[in-house]
Amino acid sequence: MNTIKIVILCVSFFVVGCTSTPPTNVPEWVGKMKNACLPEAIVMTQGLKREDIQAKVLSIHTKDWGHATCVYLYPPGQNKLWVWDSHWQSVPLRAWWNDPYDIARAWMAWRYDETPITNAYFQE
Question: Do 38 and 57 form a contact (C-beta atoms < 8 A)?
Fold first, then answer.
C-alpha cells in the first residue's frame, strides 16, 4: 500500500512541475532585466488575454519593497488560480480571484515570506 502512495505522490509532483509554465508564449527578454517585474507582468497578462484566459496584473507592496505579478485563471472551465512572475514562474494558489490582498497573502505564504503586506491591488 505504501508503494502505491509513493507512486501517486511522485506522479503528482511531476504533473505540478509540468504546469509551471504559463499557457502562453514568454518573450525572450523576460527574466533578464533588473527591476522589470511590472512590464513582465503586463506582457504576460496581455498574452494570456489573447488566449482568452482571464488575467490581471497584481501589485504587492511591503514596507521595504514592491513587486508586480500576473494572476490568471487556468484552465478555462476549471478556473484554477495561478500567480506568475519571471522568478517563480506559475504557482497554483487557493485565494479569491477578486481579492488582491488575499492573492498576495497566499503567494507570500507559498514563498515562505512572512513580510507584512502594506498594500495589494490590481493594475487596471
Answer: yes
